[in-house]
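STRUCTURE:
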């Protein structure tokens, strides 16, 4: 699949930077040493009701899903600016999770750069559809996502992840989805296991 190699040809040796990030923002794969900052950034917004908190053990276990954005000043000093993760759910879908831009760095293109890096990763592994749960539908729409009807249009694997969420009952997050251009649907994809939605919950 030709999509598999294109983006990586632009990548620096440390794996940083999507081509379209603003000049002073770069995105690189997260390292375990980033976890405390990632935890604090998510917790900051979670405490304000903007996203769900992520326990630190969960962040370490999933650190290889994460990317870190940094702003870089004229002297080349990098400062943590945010994080996002791409978590593969099935052979045809991956979810953006843990997207959080550090307080004070909003509206500089950091969020978009993180989303684009997640999409680039999805392309690199041949995943054609990217999904996210969010309260920030307007932001995702600016990134090319569309709002879906979560009572009808969810991929079965998204549902089964929901069943593990403590906020499954009464969830008021919105589902947004983007079909990535040029990534073919995988062939011979196994059927996901049937989702077992508890009776009375919709
Ligand atoms: C939502 C969030 C990720 C956006 O990141 P950001 O770096 O401020 O956004 P960007 O500067 O990359 O904005 C990209 C575009 O989206 C628009 N945008 C940003 N936030 C928006 C919002 N809340 N509503 C509508 N549009 C928004 C910007 O105006 C910009 O538009 P453009 O296409 O005209 O340039 C960030 O504010 C954040 O971390 N919020 C708190 C945590 C959170 O809500 N996380 C999302 C969980 S899924």
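SEQUENCE:
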């Amino acid at each position: 699949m030709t999509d598999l190699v294109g983006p990586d040809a632009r990548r620096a040796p440390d794996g940083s930077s999507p081509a379209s990030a603003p000049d002073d923002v770069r995105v690189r794969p997260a390292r375990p040493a980033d976890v405390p900052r990632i935890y604090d950034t998510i917790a900051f917004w979670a405490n304000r009701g903007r996203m769900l908190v992520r326990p630190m053990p969960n962040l370490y276990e999933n650190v290889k899903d994460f990317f870190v954005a940094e702003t870089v000043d004229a002297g080349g000093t990098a400062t943590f600016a945010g994080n996002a993760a791409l978590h593969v759910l099935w052979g045809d879908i991956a979810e953006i999770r843990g997207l959080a831009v550090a307080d004070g760095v909003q509206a500089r293109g950091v969020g978009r750069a993180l989303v684009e890096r997640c999409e680039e990763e999805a392309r690199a592994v041949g995943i054609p559809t990217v999904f996210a749960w969010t309260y920030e539908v307007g932001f995702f729409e600016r990134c090319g996502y569309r709002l879906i009807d979560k009572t009808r249009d969810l991929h079965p694997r998204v549902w089964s992840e929901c069943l593990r969420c403590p906020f499954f009952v009464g969830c008021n997050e919105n589902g947004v989805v983007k079909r990535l251009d040029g990534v073919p649907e995988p062939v011979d994809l196994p059927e996901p296991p049937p989702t077992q939605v508890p009776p009375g919950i919709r």
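REMARK: The chain has one domain: 2-179.
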